Structures are given as C-alpha cells and as structure tokens.
C-alpha cells in the first residue's frame, strides 16, 4: 500500500488564496488593509529567512507588513516598549515576535505583554486559556495548520483515535486541545512515556512533534493511519521529519512530507490569524468555515 | 483482592491542618488573616449548603470568611460591580462566585471579571492558560485534590498511564493538564470516544468525571489500578459515584469512595488556594511541597 501524500504546499496556497480573497471586503469596510507587525531581534540567519518569508506572504495576501529589526543588544525594556506601541497602534492587527529571542531577554514577559487580541502566534496565556476552555481566541499556527491538513483527509474527526507525540507549549499541548475540541479521543505521549509506540500503533491519527529525526518508525504506525509530521530536523542528508517517511508511507493511509507538509501551513495560518484578529477588532464578520476550507 | 480505600475525608483534614498551620506566620508577616470572599446568588439549597460549609472551613483554618448573599434577581451588572469591589479590596485574597448562577446572569463575564490572582476556583481563562503552558497560577480545586489523593498512593506519578473520563472545563480538561505536568501519559476519553473501556482497561490511573452513576464497571478496570471517582450523583439509593464502587473495589489497587473521597478535598484545596493567593499577593514565601504533602 502506498499512502496519500498530503500536499501541504498546495493546501497552504489554497488557504492563503481564501484569506487574500477576504481582504478587499475588509478594506472596503474599514478603509485599510489588515496589518501584521513582525519583530526580529538579532542576526539569527534562520529567523531572518522566516521573517522575510512572512513579510512576502503578508504582502501577497494584500495585507500590510510592518517589520521591526532590532540589534541583538536590545533589552527587555526596549522590547516591551515596542510591543506597547504596537498594541496601541490601530493599524496593527497582529503582532509576531520572532522566537528565539536573545538569551538576555525575558521571553515570557515579552509574550505576555502582547495584547491577546493581537497575539497571532497564540502563545499568550490568555489565548492558551481560551483554547483550553473552549472560548474563541487566537490558536497557535502550527497545530491549527495540522488540523486543517487532517480535515482534507477526514472531513469529520469526531471519534477518531489521535496520539500526539510531544508536549511542547507551541505544538504538542495546543494540538491535543484542538483534537479534543474536534471530539477525537486524545492521548499525549512524551519522553517519560513507557511505551509510546504501543499508543501510536492504536492511533487513526498520529501527530509527531518531538524534534527527533525519524523517531516514529513504520512499524509503530497502524496500517491506514493518517500521519502528520511536524518535525523539521536538519541532518547531514537534509531536512527530515520526526517520522521515517520512506517506510511509513508504505504503511500509512496518508502522510505529510518534510518539507512541504506542515511547514507551509504555519505561514498560511499566520495570515489567517491576522485576518481573524483584524476582523474581530473592527467588528467585520467573517465566514471562518469557508476560509478554513471546512467540508460542506 | 480488595482495594485500599483512599480516605479523602482524613487526607483533606490533614491538608486543612497544614494550611491552618501556615496562617499564624502569614498573620505575623502581614498583620491580617488571609481573606476568602464567597458570593452566593439566589436560593439554591445545595449551593447554600456548599457556601455554609466553605465559610465554616475557612474560619476553622484561621482565615477570614466574607460572605455576600444576593437575591436571585441580581443582574450581571450588579454582580460585576461587586466583583470589582472585591478585586479592589486589599483584605480579600480569594474570590469564589458559587455556581451555577441564575440563568439571566452572564456567568462567563462574571468569571472573567475576577482578578486572576484572586481566582481561587481557577476557572478564569488566564489561570487555565497558565496551567496549559506550565506557569504558576491558581488551579481548579477538584482536579488539584485528585492529584493530592493520587500522590498518597503513587509518590511518583511520572510514566504512569492515566485515563481521564470526561472533558469538562471544571474537572476533565484541567485534570488532564495536571496529570501531564506530573509526566503521566494521558488519554482523555469522552462521549464521542468509540471504546472508552478499552482505554480505561490499560490505565494505571483512572479519573472518572462524567456524572453518570456507575459508568465505569469493574470489568473496565485493570487489576491493581488506582481509581479516583469525581462523580457525585444523587440516586434513589443515595449518593453514588461514576464508578461501580462495590465491584470495582474488588479489582482496583486503590479507590476513592463516594462520598468521602474527592469531595472533601475540594474544600481543602479551596483553603489551600486562598493561602497561596494571599501569600503571592503579600510576597510571603510558602513551602508548597510541605503544604501539599509531597513525598519526602
């Protein structure tokens, strides 16, 4: 058997197009484009690439990109001051502070300083709490992207057995909340789990987010399962995921490649979150089900 | 085999005594006792009993109990006004609004109006978010009580297989977060789960919180497992839990009775949370591990 390869690049392009299609109506209603402010501190090469890509995608969607580049000597106080100004700026709907920040900066203080209603990364504790209690909020981009990929295979997720591998604040834990919201039965396995593979072997849906190249072997995957690989690990042989892709794609029913799977969805969901934040701030109504591409 | 019966009443009394033992030092440091404000709206008989019991337990622990009883005609605006005054009152460390509120009141607005640092029920989205992201906050009393009961049987919870039955905001979801924080492998099963018993049968720890009398049969329990029964269901034959206690206690290794298991822990944890909130507000240090009775 050979798995369906979930084409994250194409699915992300469709999502970006659906987001972009909403911008003219927003502009008509408000007289301005949605605005995303991205803050980059220091000279980390990978971060600089991410920020450049985010800026380009923002402009391509018809939104305004505001970029702030600060030296790696920036203090926590200076960053908090900038965040405060962006919170107060009516033209800014979304604020993204590119992580990681230099070690001398109090990252948690910066995250908590962002207005939760402009927190398009969804990392503020208020948004984590809204997600945990079933309220509307802004959801972290990567796990949201995973849900949208899953829906292309499973229009209805309710009742499916899902295993999340990893328990980070950025992926694993919000992923588990989102799957639970979709009425999956959810198990979170992690470094202290006795037999992670025994759990994975029972799962209809596996989301791997541990950051260990090839951690999930084909033998741990239930035939026909859907496998979402969040890992992006740099190795001597190039970028690889947390799943042994070549072997797993002979067992799974559907699987995301690395690269070209979850990665492109993260930026697309950032644009989607910026549009959502802008619409909520301005009281403009959105048809989220259509934007997210829910099954009819 | 006959299970160890987990004596929640005795364990709660010990917790209350450890909390009470900290009050004199707090009083010496601050010149006042920790204060818990309880707000009761309307004439619900069960709520009145809860509020009376909370007031008595608060005073017995040497803390100040402030009770506000309002008619069932109270509006959301009036309640928000009261909460605002309690937030501003320096003698109030904890605020508990007894639920359920009358149908005409916007319960969510009231919950979100409470200062998160005085939210001893732990229901505010900020506290849910702190729990979800591993920050210090105030944790809902019932799941916290379950963790403290579990620790009397398992001084170290890491690596144990835990199944939470139910996904409410008040018990199931925060319970799953707390078990994950303790490094258990956590599965949440619920009404849409295909085969909840298959999951429960694998679990070292079962926390049942569905509100269905006897939902978990003995046949679904792994021999030797620890079973925490959060259910308190009124039936013709009296109060019963979500677990078939008589039969399950022949299979489980340890089990909580209903009543006398989780119930008494909830009020004890409310006092514990009030002390924690008071100490944080006043900058008084506490040895939480000792108060919570952690294994040496």
Automatic annotation (TrEMBL), chains A, B:
Q: Which reaction does it catalyse?
A: (6R)-5,10-methenyltetrahydrofolate + H2O = (6R)-10-formyltetrahydrofolate + H(+); (6R)-5,10-methylene-5,6,7,8-tetrahydrofolate + NADP(+) = (6R)-5,10-methenyltetrahydrofolate + NADPH
Please provide, alphabetically and separated by semicolons, the GO molecular function terms listed in this UniProt record: methenyltetrahydrofolate cyclohydrolase activity; methylenetetrahydrofolate dehydrogenase (NADP+) activity
Which positions bind NADP(+)?
A: 166-168, 232
Q: What is its EC number?
A: 1.5.1.5, 3.5.4.9
Chain ranges of the Tetrahydrofolate dehydrogenase/cyclohydrolase NAD(P)-binding domain: 140-280
Cellular component terms per the entry's GO annotation: cytosol
Keywords for this entry?
Answer: Amino-acid biosynthesis, Histidine biosynthesis, Hydrolase, Methionine biosynthesis, Multifunctional enzyme, NADP, One-carbon metabolism, Oxidoreductase, Purine biosynthesis
Q: What does this protein do?
A: Catalyzes the oxidation of 5,10-methylenetetrahydrofolate to 5,10-methenyltetrahydrofolate and then the hydrolysis of 5,10-methenyltetrahydrofolate to 10-formyltetrahydrofolate.
Q: Which family does it belong to?
A: Belongs to the tetrahydrofolate dehydrogenase/cyclohydrolase family.
Subunit structure as annotated in this protein's UniProt entry: Homodimer.
Tell me what this protein is called.
Answer: Bifunctional protein FolD
